[in-house]
Amino acid sequence: MEPYPPLETILQRYAFTDFRWLDPADLVVAEWVRMKCRFGCPHYGRAAACPPNTPEVEACRRFFAEYARGLIVHFEVPPLSDEARHAWSARTNRTLVDLERDVFLAGYPRAFALFTDACHLCETCVPERTACREPASARPSATGMAVDVFGTARRLGYAIDVLTEPAAPANYFAFLMVD
Ligand code: SF4
Which residue out of 44, 119, 123 has the highest number of ligand 1 atoms within 8 Å of its CB and is therefore the one to mutate? Predict the structure, then answer.
């Protein structure tokens, strides 16, 4: 998708330098992603912005189909302890909320961020959506919205693979649905 200068000055404020515009039709949404949340993820049923607190897969598809433009942001993160990764996620996800707000105020009322991973805005999370400590800021991750992040990133030109070396930097992706 073509560059979109009206919003690129906002992105520069946040030092999100590695990003690409996307057609939401390029988002790969799949049932297997939800299955991996249900079986294998420690956040399932324990986090207010993760499944089963996110919509069913078909509803996720319908949500993305309402948009004509979005953004993928790539982060390369060196190996970190669990605690440091949690802190990185909290900082990055909070910045994404600020970005979403600025894009909203720039005239895009449907702006909606998808976090890099589980919310992590608080030290500990809660299982019920209604008990969320920061309901205005918490957002689901792309994975929590049934997006196959590997397949989507590859489709958008990012060469990523499953990490097999613990010392290798990890690739994280956030998304912003714009209009
Ligand atoms: S804001 Fe806090 S309570 Fe709400 S989903 Fe995020 S980490 Fe959990």
Answer: 119
Q: Which two tokens stand for residue 144?
A: 């929590």
Interval 115-158: pLDDT, tens: 999 999 999 999 999 999 999 999 999 999 999 999 999 999 99
CA–CA separation, 122 and 133 (whole Å): 8
Is the minimum distance from the CB of 72 to ligand 1 under 6 angstroms?
no
What is the extent of the structural domain holding 172? Answer: 5-177
DSSP conformation letters of 113-174? EEBSSS--SSSS--S-GGG-S-TTT---BTGGGTB-HHHHHHHTT--------TTSPEEEEE
Work out how many domains the chain is built from and give that number: 1
